[in-house]
Each structure stands twice: as structure tokens, then as C-alpha cells.
Amino acid sequence: MHLLRSQLNELYDLIEKQGYFSPLQFSVLPGQKELTLNDTQFYFRVFEDTGYANSMIANFSPGKSMYMDATSGIDWEGIKFYFKDWLSYLKREVSAPDKWERLIEEVRYLIGESPVENTAFSHQEYLEVRRNIDNIKNQLSSIPLLEAQNTAILQQLNRVAEMTDKLNKFDWRNFFIGTITSCVIQLGVTQEHARLLAELIRNTFSGWLLLK
Description:
Elements lengths: L4 H14 L7 E3 L5 E4 L5 E6 L7 E6 L7 E2 L5 H20 L3 H13 L11 H17 L7 H16 L6 H18 L4 H14 L8
Helix pairs in contact: 1-2, 3-6, 3-7, 4-5, 5-6
């Protein structure tokens, strides 16, 4: 269904009344039945509830507790009620810090990302890397991780060690950082424990341009 100009104006007024967003931040898609928040995948769509007079259905993202949500058949006043709720859900999502992304950046910062030569490890460097990884594995128990987290990280550190003689320094460093950040996310490691892990790695490799 197409929303009437007067209905779109009412939604415009609700955005202004809420005060957090500006109508300029929204787009009305062709067909005049959907509003989207610019540069996001969030939307509010209105459909005709066929078979019932003056009845509409809205689906929207984000919802109250789900990524997508929908109404049952309601009238226009009900649509406006849900639109106001949707604006509050939007505010919640766009104002929330991305703690996971921040954690990844902190881990990358603590481990380090200085330029690395695109050359193979020398035999001496290979031995030192393996020794450093063994030291990290031996000290991992000092971090109060869950048993499953500890086991999984040990397994991934073994993978990192195995790749030392297969990758050049640049690719190995990226593989190492990628492996650690993936562990942090997939295993649900807390922010504090992730910091401790990153500091352990950085301290163990102290003096190496590879991980400075």
C-alpha cells in the first residue's frame, strides 16, 4: 500500500517530536510504504492487511528484543504507536557502543601492528617464535579463563606455531592477530581477560619488531 502524504507527514512529526533523530536521516523508499534510517539496514514498513477494512500491518527492524518484529492487524493510530516504539529501538541500537569492535581494536593495539618485512623467518627466528609461543601456552593458566576457553586457545596457539615455517613474517603476524581476535569473539572471552591475553602476548614478544 502507499502511505498518504498526510500519513507521511505525521510520521515526520513523530520523528521531530522524539528529538533524537532528524527527518533528514530517513529516506522514504519508492512506493511510499517504507522508511529507512540512512546508512543502516533498519526500516519500518507498512502493508495493507488484505481482507480487513482499514487494517494495516507493520514490520520493522530493530524490534524490542529481536532483530525484526511485526504487528498484527491494526489501524493507523496503532501504526503510529508502533512507529514511536520503533524510534526508541532505533535510538537504543545506534547509540549503543560496539563493545566487540572496541575489544578487537584494543587487542590489536596491545599486540601491535607495526610494519613487518615480507620475508621468511630465519632458523633462529623460527626457534625463538616457537619458544615464545610455548611460553605463552605455559602462562595461559595465569588468566582466569573458562576451561573450554583455555583449551581452545591452546589449540589455536598450536596452529599459529605450526604456521611459522609456512608463512612469511607479514602473513604470519596477520594470521596470529586474526587467530587471537577470532578466539576472543567466538569463545566469549571477557574484555578484561582479553586484555590480559593480549598483554601476555605482547610481553612475551617484547623486543620483537614483529609484534611491537
